[in-house]
Specification:
20 strands, 2 domains, FAD/NAD(P)-binding domain, 5-stranded parallel β-sheet
Amino acid sequence: MSAPANRIVIIGGGASGFMAAISAKTHRPDAEVFLLEKSDKWLAKVRISGGGRCNVTHRFMEPRKFARNYPRGEAFVRKLLSEWGQPGTVNWFADQGVTLKTEADGRMFPTTNDSRTVIDALLGAAHALGVVTRVHTPVTKLERNGDAWLLTTPSEVLHTDRVIIATGGSPKDEGFAWLRALGHEVVPAVPSLFTFNLPADPIRELMGVVAPRVRLRIAGTKLESTGPLLITHWGLSGPAVLRLSAFGARDLHGMGYAYTVGVDWLGEPGEGPAREALMKEVSEHPKRKVVNASPFGLPARLWSYLLQRADLPLEKPVGELGKKGMDRLLAVLTNDRYEANGKTTFKEEFVTAGGIALQQVDPATLESKVLPGLHFAGEVLDIDGVTGGFNFQAAWSTGWLAGKAAAMG
């Protein structure tokens, strides 16, 4: 049986799936576009991401600079963004009446601070264009039939010209088995964007404390990251940790998530400037208690903890530190070490490294090089970014370009 003309089916009702359906219908208004979701909820990750605010994208506009935030797929993403990138996203949402604001760290959110604004825009655009949307509709079988595709669902078999797979990542590699069965190479999935667990470490008593700028290193590797760090009840988190976990996802997986984390609490290479700052404190305020000194602007609770870690009495005058005391303090400040064991992933930020191998996908059309008429969008591809709006931008870009290519055929 031949496929009905002008039919496109998208599997997966997340961010990339919705953008693919909207793009397909925008570029080919006469097409019959179906959007199928196996669960009972549309845009589940959009709803809960960013604490319910939805970090839509990042302020970076230049594709090369933007793409540096993808540990896997940087070159591929750079090509995508050159076709439809951050400006395209910002303008599209503006056209839907969604104004975005830029925060100090570059993340962009709707001015309403409510992910529902983003969801309503996507749902509204899809319905206005005439996209056929169906929840509780898993695809149980996908097969090629001549030049057409057959999609089996619990209620019917859909015949279609083009299929866009936007089913997201999978925490377990077996979640990609059906894509391997279609003849595609799949890069094994491992978690990305996770915190560093420090079981029973006393630093966890400082939960909620933020160090404004630290430099992290994983011992025995070249992995390094600089940025804010958040201490939690299970260990270390915050942008510096999450970025390091993303770029080191496969290395840390290979270590069984047991490794040594080096922490420079001052965020600067070398101890020279730190020593100078301490010497100045000693010179200008020799009688000041060391607990009240803190010439580095660290939070008071963290400073007290680091002093104790350096075995320095909190009431000791800075003028009595001596060379040995100063050396111990500098060692803790610039070369602290913690033993990590295990990881904790945020449900709302859960991202996997892995998916369809990018060499099997055309970056201009997101079409499979193995099976014509089959396109991919979103986290099902071996693309993942750090936190800050980069994963959603990959979803918007791949969805838009896949939908356009499927429509233009």
